Amino acid sequence: MDTESSNTISQTLETEIINGKLLPGSLLQQEELAERFGVSRQPIRAALDILSAKGLAEKRPNRTVEVGGLHLGAAEETLAVRKLLEPEALLGSIDQLTPADLLIAKQAQERFEIETDSDRLAQHDTDFHLALYAKCGNRVLLDLIVSLRRLNRRAYLGQPLGSTTRELCIHAHWQLLDAVSQQDSDRAISLLQEHFDHVKERDK
To answer: Which residues form the HTH gntR-type domain (predicted)?
Structure first.
């Protein structure tokens, strides 16, 4: 079996799932995918297994495969866990951040403000926050945060350029960056918690 082909196909489909081109519940037909990618069904099956292992696809009882997706309860649970982990990372990092770290956050924020692609928008948002959490000294914590943020990338479809949702997020980011720049831990944590509360309210 061509492992490289399977990995390439799974990465392509993963990107399409994350950026909303393939929506939850969409069927992933082996025959159609084999024709699209110009391969046999074997690497397609392997690619779908990779997506299933990542929780991005689900095998149905009739052996068909569909795009997976977080139901509302799971999305809220994911956000609740992030609300516990991200303030912890910020608190452990804030006193160790350098001007270079803050510049990275600022640059990510500037890219976030003008981005039109939802997948890249999600990445800029993650880059912004990770720049602020970078010095927490806990690699496992950072990896968990990245994984949890990745599960909710579809939410960025609701933040087109110029939207109220995007503008509110931009305002929250600049407030947070200001508090972090002043090493005001209490204010920074409070702003981050408020940010999560607004996201939860928005996604209801």
So the answer is: 3-70
